[in-house]
Write a structure and sequence with these properties.
The structure is a single chain. The protein is α/β, with parallel strands linked by helices. Helices cover about 35% and strands about 35% of the residues. It has one domain: Rossmann fold. It has 6 helices and 12 strands. Helix 2 runs parallel beside helix 5 and helix 3 crosses helix 6. It binds adenine (ADE).
Length: about 230
């Protein structure tokens, strides 16, 4: 069973419309659509925006569908010099950039899980390779690095530089991947993050986000489809 989570409808509907033998069920306010995607058992859902909703959704998916992997698809703000609008940011790992216990001397983004301090939650290496291959096959430029997740839409160079300062390997910023990463880690489920760039996380990002959302979401879905075929 392949689990796929998107934050917004536009980031998932291209997948849901392709699914066959669909059955839906609402759990914790999230509609899960289960069926066959390119012949594979899959469950796809729209979790809503932000870390809390992403975590609730990932936990509900883990408990109720026992997926073999969880893939987060969608759009993101650009933090990489090598990417532009529509290009693909692939998670090597994910951090919660706004998790802050630095007052105790902890590194920014780090949190205790099961008595262990974790900052960078690693994506599954096999999945990462498949995603890289899929992006290439789709003719899309991609960069693999850290996905920086926080409960804010980044729309200014100060915030952007702050995140890049704390997390130099960050390639994009978004609002769900890091939460899904933590839940997948806790449940020992391999996970991946695929994000197409919708904006540059700068002063123009609100307009660019609105203008490029659909196109970027579609690019991420194209990559996901290829990954599903290969799984
Ligand atoms: N998702 C898409 N663009 C984003 C941005 N600039 N900040 C946070 N999440 C995003």
């Amino acid at each position: 069973m392949i689990g796929i989570i998107a934050a917004m409808k536009v980031e998932a509907e291209g997948l849901i419309s392709e699914m066959k033998y669909k059955r839906t069920r609402v759990i914790s306010g999230v509609e899960f659509t289960r069926g066959k995607l390119r012949g594979k058992d899959a469950v796809v859902c729209v979790c809503g925006v932000g870390k809390v909703r992403a975590a609730v959704c990932a936990e509900a998916m883990a408990t109720n569908y026992k997926p073999d992997c969880i893939i987060n698809t969608g759009v993101a703000g650009n933090l990489s010099k090598e990417l532009g609008i529509g290009d693909i940011a692939i998670g090597k790992d994910a951090v919660q950039h706004d998790f802050d216990t630095t007052a105790f001397g902890d590194p920014r983004g780090g949190c205790f899980i099961d008595g262990k301090f974790e900052t960078y939650f690693k994506c599954d290496r096999k999945l990462v390779k498949l995603v890289e291959k899929a992006a290439k096959a789709e003719g899309l430029r991609s960069v693999t690095g850290t996905v920086a997740t926080g409960d804010c839409f980044v729309a200014g160079n100060d915030k952007k530089d702050e995140i890049r300062g704390y997390f130099p390997t960050a390639v994009c910023c978004e609002m769900e991947g890091g939460a899904i990463a933590v839940v997948s880690f806790i449940n020992k489920i391999p996970f991946a993050i695929v994000r197409a760039i919708s904006d540059s996380a700068d002063g123009e990002s609100p307009e660019n986000f609105s203008g490029f959302l659909e196109q970027a979401a579609g690019n991420s879905i194209r990559v996901i489809m290829r990954v599903v075929e290969e799984l």
